[in-house]
Design brief:
Layout: E1 7-12, H1 16-28, E2 35-41, E3 45-46, H2 52-57, H3 62-65, E4 67-68, H4 69-75, E5 79-82, E6 85-89, E7 94-97, E8 112-115, E9 118-121, E10 125-126, H5 135-138, E11 139-141, H6 145-164, E12 176-179, H7 183-199, E13 215-219, H8 230-242, E14 245-249, E15 253-257, E16 260-263, E17 268-270, E18 273-276, E19 281-282, E20 300-301, E21 314-316, E22 321-322, H9 337-355, E23 369-374, E24 377-385, E25 388-393, H10 395-413, H11 415-428
């Protein structure tokens, strides 16, 4: 039974940062009846966002790697509330949750209010369409596991249908155009190439998935992976081109239709499947909340303590927060997974200080480098290593990339459970199909 007089920490958003924060605080206060920790999310399970390109390609079954919030909350001493935030009353220290209609049978749970003493917004971000015509209506996105799964299912069904048709696919019928040459776009292109080769191993498909599919990757700046050194970007472009992916840099999109992508140079790339993987901004509902300062990218403005500029009881972290890099405030922490993880760990120490009326420390972003997966290989750079900044690619980079996920699992489940999950993955990999075909 929860203590009604306990200080209430409410975390909205069960992404990597929010879930790790709830886990750490749950353990910190597990024997303290005077403080309760609650996680709020509109879904029932968590999937590590950097894996969504594998979900979209079907090379990862989302059900094998998801974390159930209710079970995780019970194991790690916090409470889970199923719901989506829609409103904020910072005077009464309450958030409002949308009506809940889980079964779609009309029996809804009405709007609810949830009290807090400390509120943490960790709702992540979405891809930024920059107001380009047609993106919202005709593009798939990888902002959530449900969106990645919808794309996977649509693409798979298109392959199966084409394979059973009397005639060969029309030009563009199976083509994919990916807009955005950052990590998400590059990783998706590599994983979809793996998917089409795997499909050719299944006779039921009935077509040559490699020859009948054209993949195009577009990036508006002159090179891929702007966050990585140029040499690694060039290596990545050569790797994708060798796999039959058409890479077009310096190519901005003017509009998207149901039939493909139009560029500002007047070119047209026919594609039945257009995927938007460019830019990032905060969740739209944040701009509608009262009492918060919001940036032009719909992010919550916070101080270096990660407290909002308007209310010290409200914190924000990850992609939904605009946090200054330094005291000058001219630049902000980049919206990257490592920033959310660092901020989650930072707040797990700072929130107890806040509740004890102690002075908070400033958050300092530390760039650890970047790793980008290319299916069976990877490219990346490590910052601040013993020998300075180190660029590397190939098998070593791939192993480092996979270790990032294991570190994520360890932060959530602990070392023992990580080992069990790792062994389970190794065993199941030998028994389950290499591609999700349903």
């Amino acid at each position: 039974m929860q203590n009604s007089t306990a200080k209430k920490i409410v975390i909205v958003g069960g992404g990597s940062g929010g879930l790790k924060l709830a886990t750490r605080l749950g353990h910190y206060y597990r024997r303290n009846a005077d403080v309760s920790v609650t996680l709020v999310d509109g879904t029932l399970t968590h999937v590590w966002k950097p894996l969504l390109h594998e979900v979209a390609a079907g090379t990862l079954d989302v059900h094998d790697d998801e974390c159930n919030y209710l079970a995780h909350a019970r194991r790690h001493h916090f409470r889970f509330v199923w719901g989506r935030m829609m409103g904020l009353n910072n005077q009464r220290q309450q958030i409002r949750l949308e009506p809940l209609d889980g079964n779609g049978d009309g029996r809804t749970v009405p709007e609810r209010d949830l009290d807090y003493d400390v509120l943490v917004l960790a709702v992540g971000g979405i891809s930024d369409d920059f107001g380009i015509d047609g993106v919202a209506n005709y593009c798939y996105r990888l902002d959530s596991s449900s969106e990645a799964e919808r794309f996977r299912r649509s693409l798979l069904e298109a392959y199966l249908t084409a394979g059973q048709a009397a005639e060969k696919p029309e030009p563009g019928e199976l083509d994919v155009a990916i807009v955005g040459g950052g990590a998400t776009g590059v990783e998706l292109a590599a994983e979809l190439d793996k998917m089409r080769h795997e499909l050719n191993q299944y006779g039921a498909v009935g077509i040559d998935a490699v020859k009948d599919t054209k993949m195009t990757l577009l990036e508006r700046v002159p090179r891929l992976l702007p966050g990585l050194p140029e040499a690694l970007a060039e290596s990545t472009e050569r790797e994708l081109s060798s796999r039959g992916v058409s890479v077009r840099t310096g190519e901005a999109v003017s509009r998207v239709t149901a039939h493909g992508v139009h560029t500002e140079t007047g070119d047209f790339i026919p594609a039945r499947f257009s995927v938007w993987a460019a830019g990032i901004r905060g969740q739209p509902f944040l701009a509608k909340l009262d009492g918060l300062e919001i940036s032009q990218h719909d992010q919550v403005m916070v101080k270096r303590s990660l407290q909002t500029t308007t209310d010290e009881r409200i914190f924000a972290l990850g992609d939904c927060a605009a946090c200054p890099l330094d005291n000058e405030g001219s630049a902000f922490v980049p919206p990257r997974a490592q920033a959310a993880d660092q901020q989650s760990k930072f707040l797990s120490a700072q929130i107890p200080r806040f509740l004890e009326n102690q002075k908070l420390k400033p958050y300092v972003y530390r760039d650890r480098g970047s790793l980008v997966s290319l299916d069976d290989t990877a490219v990346g750079t490590l910052m601040g290593a013993l020998m300075g900044n180190v660029n590397f690619e190939g098998w070593a980079a791939r192993m480092s990339y996979r270790m990032l996920y294991r570190q994520h699992q360890r932060a959530l489940h602990g070392s023992f459970r990580l080992i069990v999950l790792w062994i389970s993955d190794l065993i199941s990999r030998r028994t389950r199909p290499r591609l999700k075909l349903h």
